[in-house]
Structures are given as C-alpha cells and as structure tokens.
Design brief:
It is built from 17 helices and 20 strands. It is α+β, with helices and mostly antiparallel strands.
Length: about 550
C-alpha cells in the first residue's frame, strides 16, 4: 500500500499558505483578524490593475529636439564662463539653430585663443566653410546628439518614476515604449489632473538677472489681465534687446481671486540652474503664506554666494519653466546655500513644486500622446463580469466532469478547486497586479485544470477494459499519461513565458496567470487527485471504479 500521509500534509500546507497569502487582498476580512495574526501574515496581497480599480493611462513623448537645444544652451553658458575666466573679450556666444554655436569677436587675432578654449568641448567640431574673419561656428557631433536624445528618454523615465513615488501611487506602471515614448499607468488615482500636471511639468529651475538698465523695462505695464501675454509680446517684440526676453509672473488677488500677469525684462543668460539643488521643502512665512525653501549642493552654494555678492541691489528672477515665481532685490551677499521661492500659490501647489524640484527637472518637455481615464465604476463592472464568467465557466466544467466521469469527475473537481485556491494564493504571494486579461487567464486555467485529468481518466479506462484490477489500472493510467501531460504543460508554459518576456501591460497580466495556472495544474493533477485515489484503495479493496 502506498503511504499518503506525507502527500496529504503537503496539500494541507499548500492550502494554508495560499489562504494566508490571500487574506491581505481582502481589506475587510484582514481588518477583522486579531493583531497577533496580522503580525504573522504578509501585509500585501493582490493589487487590482488600472482596468479594474480605475485610474489614468498616459503615453508621453519626449521632445528630443528641445533636449538637444537645452544641452547646447548649457554648453553656451559654460563657454561664456570659460572665456570670461580666461579674459578673452568675445562679442557674443549664442546658439544658432538647434545644434550650432556661433562665437563673434571684433579682433581677428583672437581666433586661435577661442579655438583653444573650444578644445575643452570635444562634443563640438568647427565648421570650416562657415569661417569669417571675426566669427567661428561649431556644431554638435552626430554621436553626441544621439547620446543626448537617448539620455533624455532614460532621464525622463527616472524623473517621472521619482515624482510618482513621492506622489504616493501604489503599483504604478512606468516603462519605455518605442524610441521616444513613455507609458505611465496610475491605478486608483483620485486626482488625475493634479497627477498629469505633476508628471508633465518640466521643472527647469533657473536664476536670471533682470535687465533694469533698458528703457523697455520702464515702459512695460505693471500688470496685465490673464491671457494677454501674447498681445504684449507682439507689441514689444521689436524693442527687446538682444540677449533679453520677456517673462511673466502669475499674481492672484486674495480678495477677488482674479489672476493677473506681471511682465519682466529678463536676461537670457542663466546665472544658476536647478541641477545644483540638493533639497526643496515647503515652509510657512510670517503671514502664513507657503513658500518653497531650496538648498543648494556644495557647488551651487559657492556659485550662489558669488552671484549674490557681485549683484547686490540688483533684482534676480527665480524662473521655473519660463514662468517667474518671484523677482526679489538682492539686498546682501547670501551665504549658506539657501534660497526661497515664494509666490501666490496654495499649500498643495507648494507641495507639488517641492516634489518636482526634489525629483529633478525633466531634460526636455513632454507631450501627452494618449490620455485615457478609467473610472472606478467601469472597473467594478469588469470585476463583477469577470467573477460571473469565472463562476459560470467553473460550474459548467464541474457539472460536465460529474456527469461524464461520475465519482472520478468529483475527484477532478476537487483538484480544480485546489488549483484555483493555489493560483489565487500564488498571485497574492507575488504581489501580482490583477488585470482584466489576468481574469481571462484564470478562466482559461479552469478549462485546462481538468484537461490533465481527462487524459489520466481515459488511460485508466483503457487499463480497466483490459481487465486489470482497479488499483493497477489507476497506477497504469497515471504512469502512461505522465509524459503526455508534462509535454502539453511544458509547451504551453513556453508560450506563456514568451508572452511575459515580449508582451507589455495587459499581455503580461495574462501571461502571469497562465504560467502560474499551468505549473499549479501539473501539481494538482499528479499529486492532488492521485492521493485521493490512493486513499480510497488503501482503506478498502475497490472492485469497481466509478469512471
């Protein structure tokens, strides 16, 4: 007689573990458990996907050309600083086009000195045909352009992930799609507009000086109504000095809530960029107004100290994404590496600003290519229909097995129930995200859950027709069906693994449940049902099998 105690203990342990892992997936049931049991059980279970609990699905595209322009602009600033440091009097250094830098100087004998300085920037090469007596033109190398574009995608991916982690979304999906697109799925989000604004905001922080010496600065209106910015820009476009730009500050009247814009004439040159920030936190001012306190790293602190000491009594604009947040007068040299960003924003806006500054600026602006919002009611409807489909499919399979294979069919139904319990427990143990295709995979597993038993039962019938005793017929049926069962499961498992490796989003959800269902079905078919048959034969000699 075969010993079945060990196998029963194994089945019992698997069932207990499956139920234990599943309990955190049911919040109401989990909350009702005693504290000592919660300390033993895992804290996370199955997470519902975007299509089941609602949320937002975004496909974002990085503006690669703008990333290249931003990189060239930074190189222009670096070249200017180096020329000033070496006391080489050039007339101008500016970006022309998206990838070229043009340097103009009045003295022709400065050419070799400028060329030597540009040797420190190997990413650029000189354009020979563009030579003139008093200018040089350099262009960004093709390999460097490709590197900047690829780096922009990866940096945007990491920045978005950092922002969402601080925003507090459970189980987000953030991954690269194609050459320059990023897919973001945020299940269970309750403030989709705020989340989209937080993701899309470039958060390019810059400190720039105001040009107060220009006549235009005195002629600009003190404030204009919201929406009139383009009109003002058209009126003064011809008067803006080279190297300057018009930027606007948002002002909100506390009493009426009306929004206005204050125009400033700002120098284009960036004195300090936000990439030297080490921290950003929300603080409360003396009039209970929130502001963002920023802390610079060691390099930024030294630069900020130098800039403020050289520009006392001048106004410095704090610019975020080409919007002026404040333009205070530098009263004295500021040491210690700290600054404040104040403005007319709420506590939530200040918190969001601090998040994007801590997470870092995006390397380039993002365009939203696709924007889908799934409501929780639609998700609940999907869950209800998925449960009904699972119960209906399960009931049909159970009835068919009971009618066609009688008592043996009941044993197969026991294996099917065991299969489903173990599958749900395995999904919970892996903290898997259950999606609608995942439910489809569970329903498919129900059909496949009895497939192995059908093969075994037909083999047992063949053995019985040859006149063998019941116990030998059962052993022979399992032995002869073993290779066929393993072959069919392995081939299906390979397909499921290919779907998981090369699929995205919903395809992966289907692949996870399919692969787990296949592996568990192999266990329940060869161990679960066999132990029941062995128990029956162990207790009494069975002359006839109900199959």
């Amino acid at each position: 007689m075969k010993k079945v105690g060990g196998r029963f203990a194994l089945l019992g342990a698997v069932l207990i573990l499956s139920v234990a892992f599943f309990l955190p997936s049911s919040p109401q049931l989990y909350r009702s458990l005693p504290g000592w049991l919660k300390n033993v059980l895992p804290t996370k279970g199955i997470t519902l996907g975007l299509d089941l609990q609602g949320g937002i699905h975004l496909v974002l595209e990085v503006e690669e050309e703008r990333a290249v322009e931003i990189a060239v602009d930074r190189s222009v600033n670096a070249i200017q600083d180096l020329l000033v440091e070496k006391k080489i009097p050039v007339e101008s250094v500016k970006r022309t086009g998206s990838t070229q830098v043009t340097l103009a100087f009045q003295q022709g004998d400065l050419r070799e000195q400028v060329q030597k300085v540009l040797e420190d920037f190997p990413a650029f090469f000189e354009i020979e045909p563009a030579r003139t007596a008093n200018s040089l033109v350099y262009e960004l190398r093709e390999g460097e352009i490709k590197r900047i574009k690829d780096s922009a995608i990866n940096q945007a991916l990491e920045t978005i992930r950092n922002r969402i982690d601080q925003f507090g979304v459970a189980e987000p999906l953030i991954q690269r799609q194609g050459l320059k697109q990023i897919v973001v799925q945020l299940p269970g989000i309750t403030e989709p507009k705020r989340a989209k604004d937080l993701i899309k905001e470039t958060a390019l922080l810059e400190f720039k000086l105001l040009d107060e010496s220009s006549k235009l600065a005195m002629e600009l209106p003190q404030r204009i109504p919201k929406g009139k910015e383009d009109e003002v820009l058209r009126q003064v476009q011809s008067q803006v000095p080279e190297g300057d730009q018009i930027l606007f500050e948002k002002v909100v009247e506390k009493d009426s809530g009306r929004e206005f814009r204050v125009p400033f004439l700002v120098k284009k040159r960036v004195m300090l960029a936000g990439d030297v920030l080490s921290d950003a936190r929300v603080s409360i001012g003396q009039f209970n107004d929130p502001y963002v306190s920023v802390t610079f790293d060691a390099k930024g602190a030294r630069e900020f100290d130098r800039i403020t000491s050289e520009n006392v009594k001048k106004r410095m604009a704090i610019v975020l994404d080409n919007t002026v947040y404040s333009a205070p007068v530098i009263q004295e040299r500021i040491s210690g590496g700290r600054a404040q960003i104040s403005g007319t924003f709420t506590m939530q806006e200040a918190n969001d600003l601090a998040i994007v500054l801590r997470a870092g600026a995006l390397p380039a602006p993002l365009k939203i290519i696709q924007d889908l919002t799934v409501g929780p009611s639609l998700g609940r409807d999907s869950i209800d229909k998925g449960i009904r489909a699972t119960l209906f499919a399960g009931a049909i399979v159970v009835l068919f097995m009971m009618v066609y294979y009688r008592l043996s069919g009941v044993i197969a139904d026991f294996a099917l129930a065991l299969n489903l319990i173990c599958l749900i427990g395995a999904l919970a143990a892996l903290n898997a995200t259950l999606t609608l295709p995942g439910i489809a995979g569970i329903i498919l597993t129900i059909g496949m859950g009895v497939d192995s038993n059908v093969l075994i039962f037909e083999r047992i019938r063949e053995e019985l027709r040859q006149g063998k005793p019941v116990r030998l017929a059962i052993d022979g049926g399992y032995d002869k069906a073993l290779l066929t069962i393993i072959d069919s499961h392995v081939t299906t498992l390979i397909t499921g693994m290919a779907l998981f490796l090369f699929g995205t989003g919903p395809i992966k959800g289907f692949a996870v449940t399919l692969c787990l269902g296949i592996a568990i079905n192999l266990f329940t078919a060869l161990v679960g049902t066999k132990v029941v048959f062995d128990t029956i034969n162990q207790r009494r000699k069975v002359e006839q099998l109900s199959i």
